[in-house]
C-alpha cells in the first residue's frame, strides 16, 4: 500500500507506533526492506507498508580505531560501502557474506555466512550493539549486557522482532594481500573430509568455504569472473563433461614481506592433502592440470 523512505529512526518509530495503535483488528502489516535480495518476498508486506531501509543514512558511518576496533553503521548500509570506508583505516569487518551488495539489517536478520565463519562465527556473532525500533514503535538499544533477549531475538530473527536501525560491527586489521585458491573434487567424501580437517586445524587458512558446482554449462562459464581475459589457455583446460563437482575455496592472508613463505606453505599443505586423500580428481583427468588456481 505504501513505501516509507525514512530519514531517521524516529520516522520508522512513528510509523510503527501508528500501526501498533490501530490495534489488533487492523490488518496492516509492515516489513523492512534492505536491498531486496531475499528470495521469497520476505522484504514485502502485502497490502501493507514497506520501509525502504536504504533511505536511512544516519548515523553516518563512524570507524573507531584502537584495541577493539568497530564501526557504527545504519541498518540500511551496504556491506560493500562498509568495506570501502573501513579499509581507509586499514580495518575490515571480521565476518562476511560472499556477495557484498546486501544491507547490514538484511544479513543480520538471517546470519551472514561465508568463509570466515569457521573462525569468527557468522556476521550475527560479530555485532556488539544494536539500535532497534520494536513492534510497539519504541527505540531501544540492546547488546549482550542490555536488553539481551531482544538483542539475541533480532539477530537472525528474520525481521520479526524489530527493525535494526543502527549496528556496531566488530573490525579487525585488513590483510595487505590474499592468496586465493580453489581446489576441485569429484568425490564428495574426500571433499568434506578435507574441509573438516582444514577448519579444525590451527594456523591453516583464513578463509575456507565449500560449495557444489552443478557443472552443466562448463566451468569456464561458471567461473567467468575467475579468469583473466588474457588467460584463455588455462581456462580451456577445465572440462569436466558436465559432472557435478565440489570446490574448496581457500584464502590465506599475508603481508607483502611474507609472499614467498605463503607460496611454500600453501603448496605444502595442499600437496600433503592430495597424497593422503586422492585430492586429484578421479575421472576428470583434463582437470588435473592445473588443479590449484593461484591468483
Ligand atoms: C547474490 C547473492 C549472494 C548471497 N550470498 C550470501 C552469502 O554468501 N552468505 C549469506 O549469509 N547470505 C547470502 N545471500 C543471502 C542474503 O544474505 C539474504 O538474502 C539477505 O537477507 C539479503 O539482504 P538484503 O539487504 O537484500 O535484505 P532483504 O532481502 O531486503 O531483507 C531480508 C529480510 O530481512 C528483513 N530486514 C531487512 N532489513 C532489516 C532491518 N534493518 N531490520 C530488521 N529486518 C530487516 C526483511 O524484512 C527480510 O525479512 C546472498 C544473496 C544474494 C542475492
Automatic annotation (TrEMBL):
The keyword Glycoprotein belongs to this UniProt entry's keyword annotation? yes
The protein's name = cytokinin dehydrogenase
Listed GO biological process terms: cytokinin metabolic process
Task: Tell me the superkingdom of the source.
Answer: Eukaryota
Q: Which organism is it from?
A: Lupinus luteus (European yellow lupine)
Per the UniProt entry, the Enzyme Commission number(s) are 1.5.99.12
UniProt entry tagged with the keyword Glycoprotein: yes
SUPFAM superfamilies associated with the record: FAD-binding/transporter-associated domain-like, FAD-linked oxidases, C-terminal domain
Q: What catalytic reaction does the record list? A: N(6)-dimethylallyladenine + A + H2O = 3-methyl-2-butenal + adenine + AH2
Q: Name one GO molecular function term.
A: cytokinin dehydrogenase activity
Family, per the entry? Belongs to the oxygen-dependent FAD-linked oxidoreductase family.
Cofactor(s) listed:
FAD
The record's section on InterPro entries has: Cytok_DH_C_sf, Cytokinin_DH_FAD/cytokin-bd, FAD-bd_PCMH, FAD-bd_PCMH-like_sf, FAD-bd_PCMH_sub1, FAD-bd_PCMH_sub2, FAD-linked_Oxase-like_C, FAD-linked_Oxidoreductases_BP
Any idea where the FAD-binding PCMH-type domain is?
A: 1-174
Protein keywords: FAD, Flavoprotein, Glycoprotein, Oxidoreductase, Signal
PROSITE patterns (alphabetical): FAD_PCMH
Query: Known Pfam families for this protein?
Result: Cytokin-bind (PF09265), FAD_binding_4 (PF01565)
Amino acid at each position: 500500500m505504501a513505501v516509507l523512505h525514512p530519514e531517521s529512526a524516529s520516522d520508522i518509530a512513528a510509523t510503527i507506533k501508528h500501526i501498533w495503535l490501530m490495534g489488533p483488528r487492523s490488518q496492516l502489516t509492515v516489513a523492512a526492506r534492505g536491498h531486496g535480495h531475499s528470495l521469497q518476498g520476505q522484504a514485502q508486506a502485502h497490502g501493507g507498508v514497506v520501509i525502504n531501509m536504504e533511505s536511512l543514512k544516519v548515523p553516518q558511518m563512524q570507524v573507531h580505531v584502537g584495541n577493539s576496533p568497530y564501526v557504527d553503521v545504519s541498518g540500511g548500509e551496504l556491506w560493500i560501502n562498509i568495506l570501502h570506508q573501513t579499509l581507509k583505516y586499514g580495518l575490515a569487518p571480521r565476518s562476511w557474506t560472499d556477495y557484498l551488495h546486501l544491507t547490514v539489517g538484511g544479513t543480520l536478520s538471517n546470519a551472514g555466512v561465508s568463509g570466515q565463519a569457521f573462525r569468527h562465527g557468522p556476521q550475527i556473532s560479530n555485532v556488539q550493539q544494536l539500535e532497534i525500533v520494536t513492534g510497539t514503535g519504541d527505540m531501544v538499544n540492546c547488546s549482550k549486557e542490555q536488553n539481551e533477549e531482544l538483542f539475541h531475538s533480532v539477530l537472525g530473527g528474520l525481521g520479526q522482532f524489530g527493525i535494526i536501525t543502527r549496528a556496531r560491527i566488530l573490525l579487525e586489521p585488513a590483510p595487505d594481500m590474499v592468496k586465493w585458491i580453489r581446489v576441485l573434487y569429484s568425490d564428495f567424501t574426500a571433499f568434506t573430509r578435507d574441509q573438516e580437517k582444514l577448519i579444525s586445524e590451527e594456523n591453516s587458512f583464513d578463509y575456507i568455504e565449500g560449495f557444489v558446482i552443478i557443472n552443466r554449462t562448463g566451468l569456464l562459464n561458471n567461473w567467468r569472473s575467475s579468469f583473466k581475459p588474457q588467460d584463455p589457455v588455462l581456462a580451456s583446460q577445465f572440462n569436466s563433461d558436465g559432472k557435478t563437482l565440489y570446490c574448496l575455496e581457500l584464502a590465506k592472508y599475508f603481508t607483502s614481506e611474507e609472499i614467498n613463505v605463503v607460496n611454500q606453505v600453501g603448496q605444502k599443505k595442499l600437496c600433503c592433502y592430495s597424497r593422503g586423500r586422492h585430492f586429484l580428481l578421479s575421472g576428470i583427468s583434463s582437470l588435473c592440470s592445473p588443479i590449484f588456481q593461484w591468483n
